[in-house]
């Protein structure tokens, strides 16, 4: 971003993660409305931002259709799997297939150190509330104060989730699972050794969840896992833990 001319301001408040970066970005935006335009890359925040981001990210699902048709002769898979933090890569994968009930969809949240410890499993363990201008499932205490989220993956440690994912959960259209930090590292090793592709730690949660998903589906099912990022950015973290 700096090479392209952007001024990058690090966040020093709170847990210094995505939630706090979003806090500061919105605070700056509302303080300087005449010369500031707010943009975000995840499907969180006030309307119409989740819809805008989802609309752009549907290129993921559309590309899956095109690639799948070349490989299998059909553009409809049996199963879709994606990691979920804020939820942008997952909604981009899922949205073009929502009206196809035969397609099973699985979102994978970060269970961190375990669901009874520090985690970021908002859909699994969260309660309904409002954060950054949107109602969704949040990690919060009994007073409604937002709790700290944790994941080995920086992209998944958000204490909320895109409101469209909350809707899909309530509908029962998407099944949301969780994987721990430890299992995500296993996912990194699995994809790296079998395919020579080093996945981002976010993606590794989805890879790890295959051990739960595969036994539930037909042996000839076509399963698409969205590799939402490369592991280059996570190499130091991976080296520290493996």
Structure description:
The chain is an alpha/beta fold and 242 residues long. It has a single domain, classed as Rossmann fold (3-Layer(aba) Sandwich). It has nine helices and six strands, in the order αααβαβαββαβααβα. The chain has a four-stranded parallel sheet, with helices on both faces. The protein has a two-stranded antiparallel sheet with strand order 3-4. Strand 3 and strand 4 form a beta hairpin. The mean pLDDT is 96.
Rg from Cα: 18 Å
Report the principal-axis shape: globular
Compressed to H and E, one letter per element, the order equals HHHEHEHEEHEHHEH
Strands side by side in the biggest sheet: 5-2-1-6
CATH architecture: 3-Layer(aba) Sandwich
Low-confidence segments, given as residue ranges, are none
- Secondary structure tally: strands: 6
Q: What is the SS-derived class?
A: alpha/beta
